[in-house]
Amino acid sequence: MKIDLSGHHVELTEALHNAVNSSIDKLVSHYPNIETVKVILTVEKHQQSAEAVVHFLGQDIVAKASGDNLYHSIVEMKHKLETLLKRRKAIIKSHPHQKLIPEEI
């Protein structure tokens, strides 16, 4: 699994790396089918936001959170992402694909 972390108008410190990695590691432990994760941290004038794009079971899932504190935005983004992953996994489980059995003549 690959994690790409980038920042816009923010210096990526060791504490930010640790906060993002710990949040993503918890998600990966619950959902091992996660292939790639792209996290973008953005700081604007009065708003700090965190956005994640996760490739999970053949689909890209996007979660975004913003607020006054960047660490709070990271935690909120993780909660939103967890909800979306849970929903995607439930959809996949509710539609089981049956293996085609060739007919014998």
Q: Please provide the ordered H/E string of secondary-structure elements.
A: EHEEEH
Mean pLDDT: 89
The number of E-state strands comes to: 4
Overall geometry comes to elongated
Uncertain residue segments:
none
CATH superfamily name?
Ribosome hibernation promotion factor-like
The percent of residues in helical segments reads 40-55%
Percent of residues in beta strands? 25-35%
Sheet with the most strands, sense and barrel status: 4 strands, mixed
How would you describe this structure to a colleague?
It is built from 2 helices and 4 strands; from the N terminus they run E-H-E-E-E-H. It has 105 residues and is α+β, with helices and mostly antiparallel strands. It has one domain: Double Stranded RNA Binding Domain. The protein has a 4-stranded mixed β-sheet. The longest helix is centred in the last third of the chain and has 25 residues. The radius of gyration is 17 Å and the shape is elongated.
